[in-house]
């Protein structure tokens, strides 16, 4: 019981942040999207910059000051040479910067052939995106980037769209809808949604390519954690994370974390699960992510001083038909600073374990007492014989 209380306290505690969202700060035009999420803590500020200028991306900057501010030179940002267009004042307050870019969506088919058949990839940097201004909710701290390919010769997107839904958090907690990710005030959620997009083949599966940018001396590592407890995300026992680690320390500086599942429904249930797999993390400084904000912030050093790595996350294993049927795919991931949150055993599983381990223990105890008494009785019975 004490253990249970301690675990609940650990899950509930933690710092709160004052979170605000600003759309295109300093620019009165909604033809491009830049969302600044400012999360002020006790004596630090976390800046998240989400943008669909080029490939959709999130720039994360942690600062050691409550009053650090984001600056954007819009004429430079929207020019072909955006380096230096985004910076933090005062520059000395910056503790750590990183970025995540969603570069491509692959579609492939495995139907009846040993070889995977790849269709032309969707390059997310050549999508056209709706203004997120009308989707901004300053109370729920959410926004949605909705896009379609600028040119769509196959007509796959005539009834569909691709979206990135962003949610910022002010405090620790757990999401209601599946996969019910546990989050901290240092993190935000991004949900990748394919809705109504016509597959180009029978049993099409999709994969999302994600790139990360790291400072010198920091590298991303793919971690996988398995647990016997699936109470919060039924039938899913694996949590994956791409953790940024300094070469001389193992504590994570930032992370992208997800459960090994996507869902084929707007209101996901256990049976809507779509298997999600991570393929190898690769050094990828050969292909610089075409994101305006990333180039603007990291500048010329992108790919040399700042290392780029990339990973493919695929959806649909043997059950490639789920998308065919539902025409809906949603995958959620948490993006944040510090250590990725870890699921502790749920109270239900702790009580089950307590019962499971406790019962034999009690039986053993009762058993030995009974044996002891029985032996005494035996001795007393045997004594007269002796
Ligand atoms: C922003 O632009 C709209 C129309 O384009 C205009 O009505 C509005 O006054 C402008 N706001 C500012 C603060 O310039
Ligand atoms: C965003 O929407 C608000 C109100 O809904 C409006 O006042 C503002 O001008 C819009 N911003 C841009 C850049 O269009
Ligand atoms: C917004 O910018 C685009 C491209 O820069 C331009 O075509 C459009 O006229 C601008 N809209 C407003 C309301 O200023
Ligand atoms: C931040 O604040 C906490 C307590 O509010 C304090 O313990 C810590 O030393 C402060 N850190 C810095 C870098 O000022
Ligand atoms: C913004 O960038 C442009 C082009 O690089 C430059 O000419 C201008 O001086 C910059 N503006 C500010 C306020 O720094
Ligand atoms: C914003 O989100 C809150 C809470 O989810 C909801 O009650 C409200 O209706 C939303 N506002 C808009 C404009 O959608
Ligand atoms: C789009 O939807 C309409 C009506 O729901 C349907 O008739 C049409 O075939 C769909 N097109 C594609 C490409 O799925
Ligand atoms: C898809 O499957 C249907 C029947 O299952 C078949 O008639 C059709 O030719 C297949 N299409 C392709 C592109 O393989
Ligand atoms: C790791 O190395 C950086 C410089 O590369 C240094 O500033 C930092 O103190 C080192 N951390 C540890 C724990 O050794
Ligand atoms: C890519 O990064 C590696 C390690 O950071 C470096 O050795 C290599 O020279 C880089 N390649 C290019 C083309 O910049
Ligand atoms: C992802 O998969 C596609 C198709 O196989 C491949 O072209 C691409 O290089 C892969 N990306 C990474 C980061 O492995
Ligand atoms: C959140 O970030 C702050 C500073 O950036 C750090 O002190 C704190 O430990 C982090 N919290 C978690 C739960 O990672």
TrEMBL record:
Pfam families the record matches: NCU-G1
InterPro entries: NCU-G1
Keywords: Glycoprotein, Lysosome, Membrane, Signal, Transmembrane, Transmembrane helix
Topology within the bilayer: Single-pass type I membrane protein
Main location: membrane
Subcellular location: Lysosome membrane
Transmembrane segments: 348-374
Secretion signal, residue range per the UniProt entry: 1-16
Biological role: Required to protect lysosomal transporter MFSD1 from lysosomal proteolysis and for MFSD1 lysosomal localization.
Family of the protein in this entry: Belongs to the GLMP family.
Record's subunit section: Interacts (via lumenal domain) with lysosomal protein MFSD1; the interaction starts while both proteins are still in the endoplasmic reticulum and is required for stabilization of MFSD1 in lysosomes but has no direct effect on its targeting to lysosomes or transporter activity.
Name of the featured protein: Glycosylated lysosomal membrane protein isoform X1
């Amino acid at each position: 019981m004490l253990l249970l209380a301690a675990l609940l306290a650990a899950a509930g505690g933690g710092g709160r942040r004052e979170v605000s969202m600003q759309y295109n700060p300093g620019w009165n035009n909604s033809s491009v999207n830049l969302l600044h999420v400012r999360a002020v803590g006790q004596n630090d500020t976390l800046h998240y910059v989400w943008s669909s200028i080029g490939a959709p991306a999130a720039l994360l900057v942690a600062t050691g000051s409550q009053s650090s501010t984001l600056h954007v030179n819009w004429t430079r940002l929207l020019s072909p040479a955006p380096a230096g267009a985004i910076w933090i004042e005062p520059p000395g307050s910056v503790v750590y910067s990183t970025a995540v870019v969603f570069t491509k969506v692959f579609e492939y088919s495995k139907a009846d052939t040993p070889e995977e058949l790849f269709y032309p990839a969707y390059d997310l940097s050549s999508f056209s995106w709706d203004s997120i201004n009308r989707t901004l909710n300053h109370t729920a701290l959410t926004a949605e980037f909705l896009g379609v390919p600028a040119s769509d010769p196959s007509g796959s997107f005539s009834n569909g769209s691709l979206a990135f839904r962003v949610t910022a958090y002010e405090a620790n907690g757990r999401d209601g809808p599946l996969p019910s990710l546990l989050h901290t005030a240092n993190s935000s959620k991004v949900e990748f949604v394919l809705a109504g997009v016509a597959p180009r083949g029978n049993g099409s599966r999709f994969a999302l390519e994600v790139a990360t940018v790291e400072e010198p001396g920091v590298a991303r590592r793919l971690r996988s954690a398995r647990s016997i407890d699936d109470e919060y995300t039924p039938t899913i026992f694996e949590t994956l994370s791409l953790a940024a680690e300094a070469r001389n320390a193992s504590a994570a500086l930032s992370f992208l974390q997800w459960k090994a599942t996507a869902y084929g429904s707007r209101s996901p249930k256990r049976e809507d699960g779509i298997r999600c797999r991570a393929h190898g993390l690769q050094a990828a400084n050969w292909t610089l992510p075409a994101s305006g904000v990333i180039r603007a912030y990291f500048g010329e050093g992108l790919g040399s001083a700042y290392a780029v790595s990339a990973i493919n996350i695929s959806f649909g294993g043997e059950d490639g038909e789920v998308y065919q049927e539902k025409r809906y795919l949603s995958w959620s991931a948490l993006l944040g600073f510090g250590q990725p949150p870890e699921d502790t055993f749920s109270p239900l599983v702790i009580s089950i374990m307590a019962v499971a381990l406790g019962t034999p223990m009690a039986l053993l105890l009762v058993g030995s007492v009974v044996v002891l008494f029985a032996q005494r009785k035996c001795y007393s019975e045997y004594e007269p014989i002796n």
